[in-house]
Amino acid sequence: MKLLTVIGARPQIIKAAAISRAIKAYFSETISDIILHTGQHYDENMSQQFFSELQIPQPLINLGIGSGPQGEQTAKMLTGIEQVLTKQHFDGVIIYGDTNSTLAGALAASKIQTPVFHIEAGLRSYNMTMPEEQNRIISDQLSNICFAPTQTAVDNLRREGFFDSPTRFHHNRERRIILSGDVMYDNTLFYAQLASKQSRLLLDLQLKKDQYILATVHRNYNTDNLQRLTSIFQALTAIANETTVVIPLHPRTKKLLATVDLPHLDRLFFIPPVSYLEMLVLEQNAQVVMTDSGGVQKEAFFFERPCVIMRPETEWTEIIDHGAGILADADTDHIVEAYQQFSHCTIHFPPLFGDGHAAEKIVNEIRSYLS
Ligand code: UD1
Ligand code: UDP
Asked: What pTM does this model have?
């Protein structure tokens, strides 16, 4: 059985590590997994470092698309992936999450009747201004199997009529929705110990457990909107008066910060994007995590760290429901208050994201679906 895994952005490379690991451990004799990198992320510290660190097979195909306007970037990916799929036969295409690479993979495969398997399906922000929301809704619709990481994601799909729909794919195959658990949780369980054993980052940066804040910002509506960017960084610089605020800086945010004149940025501890194991160590030891990232808010939860979510909404609503996250939007006062609230409170972190074996379950389901 020959599968094509389509990835392009940092979090997809990390998610693909879980699937590659499961294939290698349990299905190497029956499944050949070819990785296609669209090239959406291309800096060494946004891409290649993850292949090396997480021992993911190198992509056999790299389309080298790079950055660009949304439509142009997606169109180039679509063209490139279609060419690959028409030259070689694949039994199925695996896509992850909600980036432009996800959408291009789903479109290219479904148009030539190749089964699509969507990992991290059913997430919704209900904010259609987000390119990610557009990408995930269309990708879910085109997928033969939607692998939902949480019950909330299954419920979202049900509400959209996925169960009721008589949808049939090529060869009269039915659509399936499977509650698989979260491959990012698999990864965190698998790598957390290794990360704390191996990484010297805390020592190198002279950071002590529970004595710093970890922040990341990259969401397009936070970076491209000057008012929101300013409000967020005003909050972070205010908090930096009290404690160290470490920010592994996404290249998008770096570029935009360089174009504006925001006061007190020198109070912040900016570092380049770090490796996955280093990020786990930073998350595990932070007093509070402050982020607009989807993956980082979940990893904060896995490590039982409270999280200030600098967005108006989240797809991972369970984190809010359990009091482990506060939606502070890009509101300076609200962000600072949320941080202060989390500096002294006890939170319960139940296991909501599966049992750490989502990847095995996913690969097994794909195998039986295609057999
Ligand atoms: C993309 C995803 C987003 C995901 C994020 C993960 C879409 C629509 N967005 O956002 O859902 O959360 O990846 O990090 O697919 N850049 C570099 N070097 C790189 C990559 C990007 O300098 O290696 C800069 C470029 O200026 C580029 C900008 O970052 O224009 C944005 O990159 P892009 O991939 O378009 O979107 P992200 O914001 O990274
Ligand atoms: N991450 C990383 N290094 C960093 C920042 C993030 O390895 O400097 C990891 C993080 O641990 C998580 C993933 O990247 O696994 C999240 O990706 P990102 O925030 O870029 O995107 P999102 O999850 O919002 O789509």
From this structure: 0.98
Q: Is 163 helix (H, G, I), strand (E, B) or coil?
A: coil
Reduced to 3 states, what is the DSSP secondary structure of residue 289? strand
**What three-state secondary structure class fits 137?**
helix
Ligand 2 neighbour 215 (Cβ under 6 A): no
Any idea which of 12-21, 36-45, 101-110, 155-164 has the lowest mean pLDDT?
155-164
Helix axes 332-342, 226-239, angle to 10 degrees: 30
CA of 216 to the centre of ligand 2 (A): 9
**Is residue 171 annotated as part of the catalytic site, yes or no?**
no
> Which residue bears the tokens 């482990």?
324
**Continuous H helices in 240-304:** 251-257, 276-285, 294-302
pLDDT tens per residue across span 5-38: 999 999 999 999 999 999 999 999 999 999 999 9
The single residue of 37, 41, 118, 218 carrying the catalytic annotation is 218
Separation between Cα atoms, residue 152 and residue 315, nearest integer Å: 9
Domains for the chain: give ranges and CATH numbers. Answer: 2-182+354-370 (3.40.50.2000), 189-342 (3.40.50.2000)
pLDDT digits (tens, 9 = 90+) for 273-286: 999 999 999 999 99
Q: Which of 290, 332, 324 is nearest to 304 (CA)?
A: 324
